[in-house]
Structure formats: structure tokens, C-alpha cells
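TODO from last week: model Putative DNA-binding domain-containing protein.
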Amino acid sequence: MNDFARQQAEFQRGILDGDDTVLAEILDSPREKREALFGVYRYAYGSRLVEAMRNDHELLHLYLGDEMFDEMGYAYVKARPSENPNLRWFSQGLPAFLRSTAPYTEHPELSDLAALEKALNDAFDAAEGKVVELSDMAGFAPEAWSGLKFRPHPSAARLDLATNASAIWLALKNEETPPDAVALEQPAHLLIWRQDVTPMFRELSPEEAMMWDEAANGIPFGVLCEMLATYDDPDSAAGRGAGYLHGWITAGLLTDVSVGS
């Protein structure tokens, strides 16, 4: 390793790991010691990462306020140093961090809020994909419908929340006072996707969430309707399934429909 490369490596270790070896390469200034001079770079590195987290999690930042968000952000920076040159991916692990790290584990709405914002960000950045139209369904004969399989749009994803974080998110988005955080008796089943260029989400009933999850796994429509029959009136299962399918198509949630083998 040449001298310049060694200095670069020591500088990086000094920023990321707190290694002070690089201080031997730095001269004191007339006004400041080398520790203070290098500390500017250490602080700038962390503050830039926290700023990126604020951009990715605007409503979590609004919910926590500047001081608490920054405290959480620097804790995250210390626990999970950046491993990707693209700042877009730095906060991907924030929901898991909040879910597993004290004192944030005592407030599960924080990890849920972070997970919802992450999912919306991911939907915005997801790949483009063909959108199935209602007119496309006219090409399938009635006897073929039981074998139809569906492929979700690349932006579509499912998320289960243990708290009322989606209600908190909506209140913050609408510049309203958010409700008190509460744990739900049953998880809230959310479907997140991008419609045109706008990330969106809506809550699904347990029945529709089951149907979506199984459809995303390649289960054909006929079997899906049989599964719906176990949730409610068996005689109306096919109609309920068709209603859910209609909603998915009109929302632009599917990118392909095909007849399975």
C-alpha cells in the first residue's frame, strides 16, 4: 500500500471506527488542536447520515421532534455504519434497529412508522412494470378463470403493523395532531404500492390480506376462492374473490395475469 492509500485508509478508520492513528498525520493549527480539527470531519460524517435519515423518514422525524430524532439517528449511525456509497440505502435497517434496541423497543409505534415510511420509499423507487387493465380480463374464457395466476406490480408489497402507526402517519401527513399510540389486538394488514408516481397504502381485511399473499405466491384463482370459503359464506366466496381482484386491477396492483398449467 502506498503512503497516500495508507493515509486514506487511516482517515476512513478514524471516521468510521474512532481509530486515532490518523492524528499522527495531522498538524495542530495555530488555533485548534488536531483532535478538534479531525473532530469536525467525524461530526460532519454523522450529521450527513442523520440528515439523510431525516429525508427518508420525514414523518418519524416530525413525530419525534428534532432532539429525539437526532439522538436516535446518531445511535443508529454508531450501531450500523454505512456500507453503501448510496445514501438512499443507509436507513433500510432502521425499522429493525428500533424494534430491537432500547429504549425504542418500549415504543413499538416507532419501528412501525419507520417500516411504513421505508415501504413507501421502496414503492417509489421500485421498477416500472406493465399494469393490467380490466379490459385485459375479457380475453380469458369463463372456464379458464379458475386457473388464472397473478403477478403483483414490482412496487407492491405487504406490511403488517402491530400498532396504529398508519393512523399516526395519516394524521402527521395531514398536519393534524396524531392519536395516542396503541397496540392493536390484531395486526393491521397494509398493502403498499405506487400508483402512477405516487406511493400509496391501504388497509386490507384479514380475508383480502390472505388472498393477496396467496395470489402473490402463485396460487390460482380457483384455489383462492376455495380458501375464501373458509373465511365467510362459501356461496359468496367467488363473488368476494372477484371483488378483491377488481379492486387490485383498478388500483394498478397487478402486472400480469396468465393461465397456469
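Done. The CA atoms of residues 180 and 242 lie 37 Å apart.
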